């Protein structure tokens, strides 16, 4: 479905290039919800932008590529970095982070739907026909079709986010990328939106990539997830496995810091701060904060490798299990 | 129901603005040390020699009546409001006595309006179109060139642009008359032909300078809008860029420009003094200039009253059409 090969990107600044993604390799499969977790500034949004092929100055791809393969007209078509934009909205769509300001403030929602539906998809039908299909789709998502006549400023934050999700999924794309879709919403609305995304994924049997700093969200809805630290993945695998048995020290400490119902012992945070991307440490990026770090960790960058079937980690301390 | 209340309130402010403005221009000339009646009597005496004191007293009184300078200040003020503001009767002009001010303005105003309105509207259309291209498609070479030209022309003082046009096209090339002559006799054909011939250079000079302004303002407006999240998201939805330019960038940046257009159209009633002087074009601007030079109070009062009414009406119209173009205002 989506293959990421040796991807490295950096931001151009006056003080030189700042490497943000470091040699990333992974795959996202058909019919799954894939989560990308990590703290602020670790490169989640940058990764998502490259996946969606939004490569605008000052972001640049230094090496590697993203390949999107979709079923089209009976066969399979592959779109590569630089060409993925030709598949925008038909095969791959994007639910942005700041959903509050992403709709044109002075046109009704129905026009924004019509704008997003390409001519070839409308099959020469009249505007009213297309709008009827949109209204029907809104009802399937248990949204009122009256929303179509509203202006964005008349909707609440949660409603707007739901409308955007409807907009992003109306053409049944094979891949939906959602960047922090529940940020700035209260927990009740958050849950509603997560359920909506989950139901949609099950119905369309497509792939949903969900970026969130909220580890609880990943536990609730993702099938597989990757945990990013300072520009690359620390650990990647099935969500259940990661929560049950975290391998990487960073993941272990992260999950150890989660509060649990009934457990009243104070939770320990991870001491220290993530390294500045302008001046990263040699060796493992997590070594300065890692309680198990050895001299090797401080000198040599650990390889991101499959340590168990379907389970990847970047740590010198993890022994590969004989399969 | 809510709208009628808004309309009523808005009309009240409109009337209040006009009243305050008119009151100002009524009292300010009356604080001048010179007396127009005495000035005129002095002129008559200089031309006609000694006069009979009794006749002179009668002349003085009748002039005071005609100039609206009779009675106490309050009486003058009330009769000015009644006759001037409500009946558009500003009395006779002093410089072309005894023609009424209203008649003179009525002859000059159409020329001014034809010139300023057409050049304002044309400049607005052209300037906003180019400005939108320059702001939305920043990387195109053509938009960079157009913006560069606008930036070069815009800061040149207006009278220099006008003089250069005058020198090149009227003096050296001789395509247009040095001073505008409009044939008001000899039928419709010669009239229109002479009007067009006389207005091309003044209109061109106004166009050049104001188009530059519209380009620069629209460019900065639309390039800000083009960076907004909703425009980026429209791009990520794969919407063709022409469509984004029209329905997303233009519609969101034109609102400010419509206000500015209405304001400049209101100002069009003032005429453009500089244009009319340089090209010798007959209009209200030149009229105001002459009236000031020759202390024609009635004329000054008349011209300024018209421009106060025009500008406040333009603002009123903007406020009333705003809800039609911006739904955020309509629903709040």
Classification by helices and strands of chain B? mainly alpha
Strand content of chain A: 25-35%
The number of distinct helices of chain A, counting runs of at least 4 residues, comes to: 10
- The average pLDDT of chain B is 86
> Could you report the average pLDDT of chain A, rounded to the nearest whole number?
90
Strand content of chain B: under 5%
* DSSP helix fraction of chain B: over 70%
**Protein chain pair with the most extensive contact, residues per chain:** A-B, 25 and 20 residues
How many beta-strand segments of chain B?
A: 0
Q: What name does CATH use for the topology of the largest domain in chain A?
A: Rossmann fold
CATH architecture of the largest domain in chain B, by name, is Orthogonal Bundle
Secondary-structure element series of chain A? EEEHEEEHHHHEHEHEEHHHEE
Major β-sheet annotation of chain A: 8 strands, mixed
Summed up:
Chain A has helices spanning 44-51, 109-116, 119-122, 127-140, 157-169, 187-204, 215-221, 239-244, 249-256, 295-299, and strands at residues 2-13, 16-28, 33-37, 59-72, 75-80, 92-95, 175-179, 207-211, 224-229, 232-238, 305-308, 311-313.
Any overview of this molecule?
The complex is a heterodimer of chains A (323) and B (332). Helix content of chain A is 28%, strand content 26%. Chain A is α/β, with parallel strands linked by helices and 323 residues long. Chain A starts with a strand and ends in a 10-residue tail after the last strand. Chain B has two domains: 2-87, no CATH class; 104-330, MetI-like fold. Chain B is 78% helix and 0% strand. Chain B contains 14 helices and no strands. Chain B has helices at residues 2-30, 36-48, 53-66, 73-87, 101-136, 141-153, 158-172, 188-226, 229-236, 241-267, 273-279, 284-293, 297-325, 327-330. In chain B, helix 5 packs parallel to helix 8 (188-226), helix 7 (158-172) packs parallel to helix 11 (273-279) and helix 12 (284-293) packs antiparallel against helix 13. The radius of gyration of chain B is 25 Å and the shape is flat. In chain B, 33% of the residues are buried. The chains are: A alpha/beta (323), B mainly alpha (332). At the A-B interface, helix 2 of A face helix 9 and helix 10 of B.
